[in-house]
Specification:
The protein is an alpha+beta fold. The protein is 36% helix and 22% strand.
Length: 410
């Protein structure tokens, strides 16, 4: 069994690297919602599934789906998967590893049928890169891809609806992309995307919850003026105000255990060296496992922006971009994952995910669980992103054990 697992783990890594070749950019990886490389990705994964007797399909939202039948007809189904899209200049494992591991788990069954069917899903979109709206793939699976989602446009003015149609799919068939009522649960393997497991010297973790997230855009409005002729005490510098606030955001986040707050994008206008910036837009991303702590932090950071702007003679306004509550994973499934991690010879660790995942969308409709794999260096969303072969081996062993446990409890 150990040799077989080692071989399968090596194949998983090779397959992830193969999928990383399907990119919109030469020399780096970027694969967005229903881009041409996504079709190549679908074709490659289908070639792995066909020897299992499976006939993969692409649903109306562009999700790759493949059903491994149960021992008897009419049985419920377990979904296993993750997303196939990437951020720009991405690594080879974020999202994709969860899909490739699902393929490997189906292969490990060697034709054996379980009391439940297994449906592999490779979500078409999770990152929100092309349309600035995440989770399009998983929203379709739970029947929540709305007309407002379909109307979103990318930088070229192409709408989600038009992208679906250009890919050869039919938006009218989106209701058929929703999961069936006989769904048992959803399981997602994913790299941690952080340093916690590496610092603990552990391979795998049970994800108990996914942090809530608030995302806003702040606009500091001052007065543009000549950089050489305006005295320092007569300036209304929007960028200086934003800079003071950014430092305050970091300071306040450090004071609150479990809180992370990030100003990830800032745009100053007019954006030239010899003009005092009169207008600045800055994003704020706040996350915490506790919705109360997150809400309180957002209120405080907003108040700080207003106080800094008033003191400097500026105006500030903010727009809410995203409000996502903390999402707990299913306790029974998390308990089963812990047992499976122990059976794989690993010490189980429970943690909250600071990043959003498709599991948070599925959790509102079906019992959902997540398993994290250690991320060397905590590096993700970067070409240096990696995963250890031994950890992939353990993830496979854990997954096989979990399927056996769920089969015995069905």
């Amino acid at each position: 069994m150990r040799v077989d697992l080692r071989t399968r783990a090596g194949q998983v890594l090779q397959r992830c690297q193969k999928l990383a070749l399907f990119s919109e950019d030469a020399g780096s990886l970027r694969r967005t919602f229903l881009s041409a490389p996504m079709r190549d990705c679908h074709r490659e994964i289908a070639s792995w599934l066909q020897p299992l007797g499976l006939s993969p399909r692409i649903d109306a939202a562009g999700n790759l789906r493949a059903l491994y039948p149960a021992a008897a007809s009419g049985a419920p189904r377990l979904f296993i998967g993750s997303h196939l899209d990437t951020v720009p200049n991405a690594g080879a494992f974020d999202g994709v590893l969860g899909v490739v591991l699902a393929v490997a788990l189906l292969e490990s069954l060697d034709g054996k049928r379980l009391p439940f069917a297994i449906e592999l899903v490779g979500f078409s979109e999770e990152e929100g890169v092309r349309f600035s709206t995440p989770f399009l793939g998983s929203l379709a699976l739970v029947g929540r891809l709305s007309e407002s989602h379909l109307a979103k446009t990318d930088s070229r003015g192409i709408s989600v609806r038009e992208a679906i149609e250009s890919f050869g799919l039919h938006p009218a068939e989106l209701p058929g992309a929703a999961m069936s009522r006989d769904t048992l649960a959803f399981l997602e393997f994913h790299i941690e995307q952080g340093p916690a497991l590496e610092n603990l010297g552990l391979s795998l973790a049970v994800v108990d919850a996914i942090s809530g997230q608030t995302r806003l855009e702040f606009r500091f409005s001052g007065r543009a003026n000549h950089a050489g002729t305006t005295p320092m005490d007569l300036r209304h510098d929007a960028l200086a105000a934003a800079a003071e606030w950014i430092a305050a955001v970091e300071r306040e986040a450090r004071r609150t255990p479990g809180l992370v707050a990030t100003v990830g994008s800032i745009q100053a206008k007019p954006g030239v060296a010899n003009v005092i910036p009169g207008d600045v837009r800055a994003t704020l991303d706040v996350r915490h496992a506790s919705d109360g702590a997150r809400t309180q932090a957002v209120a405080k950071l907003t108040h700080l922006a207003e106080e800094i702007a008033a003191r400097r003679g500026l105006a500030v306004a903010h727009t809410l971009l995203l409000e996502q509550p903390a999402i707990p994973m299913d306790p029974f499934l998390s308990g089963q994952i812990e047992t499976a991690i122990r059976a794989a010879g690993c010490k189980p660790h429970h943690m909250t995910s600071g990043a959003g995942h498709d599991a948070m969308i599925l959790a509102g409709s079906v019992p959902s669980g997540m398993i994290f794999l250690r991320t060397p260096g905590g590096i993700s969303h970067d070409p240096a992103e990696s995963v250890l072969p031994a950890d992939v081996e353990k993830a496979l062993e854990c997954g096989m054990q979990l399927l056996a446990q769920l089969a015995s409890s069905s």
